[in-house]
Fold this sequence. Notes:
Layout: E1 42-47, E2 62-65, E3 68-72, E4 85-89, E5 95-98, E6 112-115, E7 118-122, E8 128-133, E9 138-142, E10 150-157, E11 163-167, E12 172-176, E13 182-185, E14 193-200, E15 204-209, E16 214-219, E17 224-228, E18 242-245, E19 248-252, E20 258-261, E21 269-271, E22 287-290, E23 293-297, E24 303-309, E25 312-317, E26 331-333, E27 337-341, E28 347-353, E29 385-389, E30 396-402, E31 408-413, E32 419-425, E33 431-434, E34 441-449, E35 452-460
Antiparallel strand pairs: 1-28, 2-3, 3-4, 4-5, 6-7, 7-8, 8-9, 10-11, 11-12, 12-13, 14-15, 15-16, 16-17, 18-19, 19-20, 20-21, 22-23, 23-24, 24-25, 26-27, 27-28, 29-30, 30-33, 31-32, 31-34, 34-35
Amino acid sequence: MQQQPRYALSSWRAVCLSAATLCLMFTATAQSEYPFEYPCNQWVDRVVNGDAPYGDTHYGGVLYGFEKIIYMDGSGHPDPNHKQITNIYGANYQHWGHLNTSSVDMDFYSDIESHNGRLYYKGVDEKFHVATWNGSSWVMNPVNNDAIDCFEGFFEIDNTGRIFYNGSDRKVYNIMGPNWWEWGPLNTSAPSSSGGIELGGGSRIYFLDYDFNVMYYYWTGSQWLWDQANVHAVNARRYSELIYDNGRILYVGEDDLIRYIDGPGAGQHGVLLPGAPAVTSTLISDMILDNNKLVYTSESDRFHMIYEVNNNLFHTQIHPTAEPSSYANIDFVDGRGIVYVNRDRKVHELVYYPCYDEPIGEPDPGGPGAEKFGQTAPMVNSSVQVSLFPSPVVDKVSVDVSGEFTNGLVEIFDAQGRLVKSAKVQQNEPASLRMVDEPAGVYWLRFSSSEGMESHKFMKQ
């Protein structure tokens, strides 16, 4: 484990291990009261649905959205280019199906993105397609058949619905307007683009040029201009993922190390965490940043994570044997862990199971495994009180939170640690969550806010 005190990620605030997306955190209690089927205080790697089709071993996207795992079917159809978008769903991931068997197949290297209740992907026709749920089925439509073809499958969607991508002439394009009728290049005199696209602050669009310099477009109010992010920074690796993090850009350098550029111009740049393992040497390697954690595949083809504790960065190997496919695409799953395509070509979920017989306290940077992710941060504002009723629960559970708090969220997890319900909570407004369709058993309710979090166990009849 390596410590680096200087280059803390600017958006990583507070103690990241006390507000994790990657793991479940509950009030400490005896493990015997919480019947896990796996050993505790460790990450568990498992197939989410053994009957679902194989995932694709190329870059084909994996996305967690709409409480489903969405991915490319790579099950070996007689047509080698047949790549249907598939989803695994249900409280225990017991169901699966193709979104629409008559839709245009997905391209080998396409991302899958979600925006405003819709799914987007690049088809084998080199065009973008959108999937919309109409209440009973997924309806698939082309975005704009007249727009220039997409080169590679990297694209991003901003909060207005504009699609940014690399065109077949290697320039960055966007598709926009009502029903996506308008399209065009950002700037025809800009360098050719290769690899990732990333949206940044201040109307910036980051990309790699053909020399693998990190470049960016910026909007002047009337036109898109472009510049190099930092002329002194080490070049990126081809097809490097680009991640914008509150003013800085993260990328994989040509030396296979995760690097940063701290803002356009002559800002700081360098290796994010010296001593952290290099990124896998496969051509395409995904890395994701969410809720203060950066997860990537290391040179040993294992998942590693860089995280912050008390303004210091650390790294840890998440699991000793979980092995992603060559071009693994990964995504976070709310409250549980990550999903990815394993070397066995099945969709896996990597989940952390904490124990509950340890004292609550600060994470131990020198400790093993996931650094005691299973601990709950106490409320900063001790006047916040959480109560739930009735007990036992029959058809719904009501949650009453007293005191002053902001950004309140209630989540309910079942005995296997799966998120089954969630709702936002306002001050002086009790929340009610339906449980009539959930099986009888032990559940945990977690309340989190900007002031901290706490959890309560309850029974459902």
